[in-house]
């Protein structure tokens, strides 16, 4: 059984790899390399798999799962600059792919009922990534 919690946050980022020159970064990231940065209204879907607890009828209480997501992730990234304001993203180029991996590392140990099995991160309505821990 898989249950999913869906939450949103807004954050700014700039895609830039300091190990390469301006031309490489412009070719790879185009407008996302603008030095001023830009923002997205991200939507994250966090899925937990496990057995249904016969006493509660639930895999994990979704209210509790959302509290964990807020405490571990959203309180740290909402209305922040992902390049500079978030210690656990230090040195990470904040693409949706890298964010999903970093979010997994942070959330997985905090989920104590069932197990984290998938993160879907929507950067825009049209762009999203799926990460299943590998
Ligand atoms: Ni962007």
Itemize the secondary structure elements and their pairings.
Layout: E1 2-13, H1 22-29, E2 38-49, H2 62-77, E3 80-81, H3 96-107, E4 115-122, E5 128-131
Parallel strand pairs: 1-3
Antiparallel strand pairs: 1-2, 2-4, 4-5
Could you explain the architecture of this structure?
By secondary structure, the protein is an alpha+beta fold. Helix content is 27%, strand content 28%. It has 3 helices and 5 strands, in the order βαβαβαββ. It has helices at 22-29, 62-77, 96-107; strands spanning 2-13, 38-49, 80-81, 115-122, 128-131. The protein has a 5-stranded mixed β-sheet with strand order 3-1-2-4-5. A hairpin with a 5-residue loop joins strand 4 (115-122) and strand 5 (128-131). The longest helix has 16 residues, at 62-77. It is elongated. The relative contact order is 0.22. The model has no long low-confidence stretch (mean pLDDT 95). The protein binds nickel (II) ion (NI). Nickel (II) ion binds at residues 13, 32, 38, 40.
Helix-strand topology string: EHEHEHEE
Strand percentage: 25-35%
Strand tally: 5
Question: What is the rounded Rg?
Answer: 16 Å
Helix content, binned percent? 25-40%
Strand order of the largest sheet: 3-1-2-4-5
Show unreliable segments: none
Number of helices: 3
Structural class: alpha+beta
The major pleated sheet works out as:
5 strands, mixed
Shape: elongated
């Amino acid at each position: 059984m898989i249950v999913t919690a869906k939450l949103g946050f807004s954050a700014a980022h700039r895609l830039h790899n300091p190990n390469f020159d301006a031309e490489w970064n412009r070719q790879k990231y185009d407008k996302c390399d603008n030095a001023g940065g830009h923002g997205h209204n991200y939507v994250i879907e966090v899925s937990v798999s496990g057995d249904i607890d016969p006493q509660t009828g639930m895999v994990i209480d979704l209210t509790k799962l959302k509290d964990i997501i807020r405490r571990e992730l959203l309180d740290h990234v909402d209305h922040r600059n992902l390049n500079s304001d978030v210690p656990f993203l230090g040195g990470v180029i904040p693409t949706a792919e890298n964010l999903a991996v970093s979010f997994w590392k942070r959330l997985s140990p905090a989920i104590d009922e069932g197990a984290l099995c998938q993160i879907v991160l929507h950067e825009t309505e049209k762009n999203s990534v799926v990460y299943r821990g590998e």
